[in-house]
Amino acid sequence: MAYLNRGNARLQQGDLEGAIADYNEAIRLNPDWVIPYSNRKEIAPHPNTSIEILKQLARDDDWKVRLEVAKNPNTPKAILSALAQDSNKAVREAANKRLAGQ
Questions:
Q1: Which positions ≥6 away from 91 have C-beta within 8 Å?
Q2: What is the pLDDT of residues 3-30, one digit of tens each?
Q3: To the nearest 5 percent, what fractions of the chain are helix, strand and coil?
Q4: Which of 5, 19, 61, 73 fits a disulfide with 11 by CB distance 3.0 to 4.6 angstroms?
Q5: C-alpha span between 34 and 6 (Å, rounded)
Q6: What range(s) does the Leucine rich repeat variant domain occupy (predicted)?
Q7: How far apart are CA 65 and CA 94, in angstroms?
Q8: 43 contacts 20 by C-beta, under 8 angstroms
Q9: Coil, helix or strand at residue 68
């Protein structure tokens, strides 16, 4: 719970790298706890999310997180190209739309 709370506080302060690290640690300690997984989708669309975090989140198990990465206007084309091959139709469509410049 401590890592989740600290991750939430870091997210509110704009410390996205710290937030994702705390959410990842909360997941490592309790892989069945769904809240830290879902909180990562709050980081994916943020305009200040680093390329490194976008790369990590583009491989997330949760398709909703990958969808938010595909929608992020700062996601590089290389990541979008990978997401255009995603197993989830909504993720593929969002990535292809961004690649097409829409």
A1: 63, 66, 67, 70, 83
A2: 999 999 999 999 999 999 999 999 999 9
A3: 70, 0, 30
A4: 19
A5: 16
A6: 42-98
A7: 12
A8: yes
A9: helix
- Under the banding of pLDDT at 50, 70 and 90, the label for residue 102 is low
Tokens 């292809």 -> residue: 96
Tens of pLDDT along 47-77?
A: 999 999 999 999 998 999 999 999 999 999 9
Q: What is the DSSP string of 31-54?
A: TT-HHHHHHHHHHTT-TT--HHHH
CA proximity to 44, closest of 13, 11, 22: 11
Spatial separation of the C-alpha atoms in residues 64 and 54, rounded to whole Å: 13
> Cα(15)–Cα(28) distance, rounded to whole angstroms?
20
Residue type, 66: R
